Amino acid sequence: MAAAQRGDWSQPTSAAFVTSFLPIPLKLWNKYRVSNVPSLIFIDAATGKVVCRNGLLVIRDDPEGLEFPWGPKPFSEVVAGPLLRNNGQTLDSSALEGSHVGVYFSAHWCPPCRSLTRVLVESYQKIKEAGQKFEILFVSADRSEDSFKQYFSEMPWVAVPYADEARRSRLNRLYGIQGIPTLIVLDPKGEVITRQGRVEVLNDVECREFPWHPKPVLELTDSNAVQLNEGPCLVLFVDSEDDGESEAAKQLIQPIAEKIIAKYKAKEEEAPLLFFVAGEDDMTDSLRDYTNLPEAAPLLTILDMSARAKYVMDVEEITPEIVEAFVSDFLADKLKPEPI
After folding, report:
1. For 91-126, what is each residue's pLDDT tens digit?
2. CA distance 141 to 148
3. Cβ atoms of 251 and 238 closer than 8 Å
4. Strands 50-52 and 39-43
5. pLDDT band at 242 (very low <50, low <70, confident <90, very high)
6. CATH number, domain 75-203, options 3.40.30.10, 3.10.180.10, 3.40.1160.10, 3.30.360.10
7. Measured between alpha carbons, how far is 246 from 281 in angstroms, rounded to an integer?
8. For residue 228, what is the DSSP state?
9. Which CATH fold would you assign to the domain 218-339?
10. Does residue 230 register a pLDDT over 80?
11. From CA 302, how far away is CA 266, in angstroms rounded?
């Protein structure tokens, strides 16, 4: 899955698409969560909603347009067919029904993938031992069947057969996969719970919070800092390593975060902001240095890494009213960005 990294129709038969090559208006990068170029995204011209995030795979797999308009299909339909265990046993994909499923896009040639797999094996075993109905489906991005077999031999879960390239591609298209490793966690109905399974597994090694429903506000850590690259992020820096202060900061911004998330969920769109609280540690210090932020705390910011832009609210006291006004002004394009 080679790609360049950044810093997954009108009336039912009309189509529109967005293609991304630098330079382009950065709002489109953020709106459609583009992280690689080239990217081809199909949207519904009437509603603006995304039909397919991985248009390049669509064009490769369906050059005649036989599956047009390439809208999303249920997981159960896309995955339908035989699955493998590493002992050679086969089973039907219907065996996944009624379970939470982690759809794991990974490859042996990818060092971060191998590191995550080691942790994921332990998490998988803990969840199974706790009596939870959970299965992982490996969707390989390996470059040969021998590599696939070697890598899959380390995994206690099931996989799409390597030879079934069409089904592997359809799963990539379904979730708009732009990089690996990616772990998509589904509920027993096949609906996405989180696209951030990788972060959740690394942050919750004891799996106490499985199946990892998203939190409106996250505490910034080494493992979830990668999400800062996914689009604009509100980050509230606090001046203490005390968990109590971080928790108070989360409670302060959580109602605003929940309001924004609910508003966009009702429109079947992803929220335009992620929300974080950052304490005092080496990672936060590095982030402040990289973005050239003042040492003040509390410090309310919105960081847009793709646009290399920041928005800073440096006041003595952060109140819910200040946060809500700051977010509203950002979403209305009323704030003047400073360069990162």
Report:
1. 999 999 999 999 999 999 999 999 999 999 999 999
2. 8
3. no
4. antiparallel
5. low
6. 3.40.30.10
7. 12
8. G
9. Glutaredoxin (3.40.30)
10. yes
11. 24
